[in-house]
Amino acid sequence: MMASCENCGKSLVSPLACESCGSIFLPAEDVDYFEALGIKREYSLCKDEIEDRQRKLGMLLHPDFAMKKTPFEQRIAQRSSALVNDAATTLKDDLERAKYLLSLYDDEVLQASKETFGGFLAEMLDRREELGELRFSAAEAKPAGHEKSKEFQLALEKMETWATSEAQRIRIELESLFEKLHLNPSSAELKDLIARQIRSWSYIESFNHEIMATRRTIG
Ligand SMILES: [Zn+2]
After folding, report:
1. Mean predicted confidence (pLDDT) in 172-184
2. Do both 79 and 134 map to the same domain?
3. How far is the CA of 72 from the centre of ligand 1 (A)?
């Protein structure tokens, strides 16, 4: 339910500030990132919407604007401004948003489950091995002065393409899993599946970092 502004009576999109009259409010301690920004609590969000909300609230909470306020309001504005930025940073990142949203349903499942998917893990290990071999042969080729750099770059690009498409696949899976969880918020099975997808995605992220590190040694 949307609360209304105690000063002007208009409904509040975010509990942090009123966009009609500019009043600043102290939010509840447990306000979550979605509430703070005033957006729906769902995984499939539009990033433009987050940025739009961040910009609007950022303006209301900006020190220049809050200058005309009481010192107490200025302190609230400063704190809320940090909250808005943290919220936007987390929610704009597809993986971080998944972790955060899952934690709102259940703050233990991600730590509790160490599982991913067997098929995915096997493929991930293969790719890691491939990357390890590539790094090894690149190091071998260097002192010998071989012009193999292009071949290595192509191999790295192929791995990057694979990682990107895996992340994309997981994001789509997560969208559908979170939709189901929204309708069935106590399902342990759904939470476990989401935790596994998040774990798989974390593997992809660290693989991407390895690719970048390899690119630097080869380049
Ligand atoms: Zn108002």
Report:
1. 97
2. no
3. 18
